[in-house]
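User: C-alpha cells in, sequence out, please.
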C-alpha cells in the first residue's frame, strides 16, 4: 500500500440510546470501531483524541446521534479515525482573513476621543389609555354570599 486510502463517512449512532445510559459513550466508541472494521477491512483501528472529545463532550449519557468522520488507512496497516473538517469552509475562512488583513493595512486607524461619543436618548414609553368601554362600565364589587339555613 503505497498510497493512503481516505474516506469520509457519516456514522449513525442512534442505536447507542438502546444501551444503558451509563454505557452510551463507550458504546459509541465501540460502534465507530466496528463501523471502521467493516468498511475499511482492517482489524487495527485508532480513534483520534479530538473525536473522542466530541463523543464525550456531553458526558457518558448523551453522545451525539450522528457523527461525520474521516477514515484514513496508513502504510503501517492501521486505520486512523478523525473528525471530518470540511475543506471548503477552511478555504473560505482563510480567504476572508486575508481580505480583512489587507483592509486593515489600507485604512488608517481613526481614534475617537471619549468626549465626542454620543449617548442614545432613552426611548419614550407610550402609556396606554383605557378604552371607552372600560371607563363607562360600572365597577363590579364582589360581595360574599351567605347561605342561610
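Assistant: Sequence out:
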Amino acid at each position: 500500500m503505497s498510497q493512503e486510502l481516505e474516506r469520509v463517512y457519516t456514522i449513525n449512532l442512534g442505536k447507542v440510546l438502546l444501551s444503558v445510559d451509563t454505557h452510551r459513550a463507550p458504546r459509541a466508541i465501540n460502534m465507530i470501531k466496528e463501523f471502521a472494521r467493516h468498511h475499511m477491512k482492517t482489524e487495527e483501528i485508532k480513534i483520534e483524541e479530538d473525536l473522542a472529545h466530541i463523543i464525550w463532550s456531553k458526558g457518558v449519557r448523551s453522545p451525539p446521534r450522528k457523527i461525520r468522520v474521516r477514515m484514513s488507512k496508513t502504510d503501517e496497516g492501521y486505520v486512523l479515525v478523525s473528525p471530518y473538517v470540511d475543506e471548503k469552509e477552511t478555504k473560505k475562512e482563510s480567504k476572508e482573513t486575508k481580505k480583512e488583513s489587507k483592509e486593515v493595512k489600507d485604512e488608517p486607524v481613526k481614534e475617537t476621543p471619549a468626549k465626542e461619543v454620543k449617548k442614545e436618548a432613552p426611548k419614550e414609553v407610550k402609556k396606554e389609555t383605557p378604552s371607552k368601554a372600560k371607563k363607562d362600565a360600572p365597577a363590579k364589587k364582589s360581595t360574599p354570599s351567605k347561605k342561610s339555613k
